[in-house]
Amino acid sequence: MKKYFFMVCLLVVSLGAHAQFEQGTWVINPYATGLGFSVSKAEKAQFGVGAKAGNFLVDDVALLVEASADWSKAIDIYSLGAGGRYYFNKTGVYLGAGLRFDHSRLNGGHKSSQFGLGVEAGYAFFISGTVTIEPAVYYNWCFNKGDMSKFGIKFGFGIYL
At the top level of CATH, which class does the domain 2-160 belong to? Predict the structure, then answer.
């Protein structure tokens, strides 16, 4: 998997396109969450992966869809969502927000579903014309159960086409 991701990154870098936060630009953002830093009442250690993809509807504003999965010893959470990001003055600093649908499964077999709101703040650091490293902090607030809300750190890559 790492080899394929690395080859895709090299291909994108070789295209020589100039990534900007302009209308019509597409963004793909795979990421890892938690990494042992997530804080939640329901879980202690967790690891998650996900991806966002979308398009800039106007300059500096992107509409995104998201799919993610978080795993821990006590609970697994699978999420789908849609939201947006606003990039400040082409600096790479962004704020994002979106609605999420989370499906949870406890180790004992109990399942539940809930809606929530996710917010994030991060920085898109360009390592080439189209590829970024994107560290961010996030907060996912669950409407139904306050103990399922979580604050954490995520680390991702962005590919701007």
Answer: mainly beta
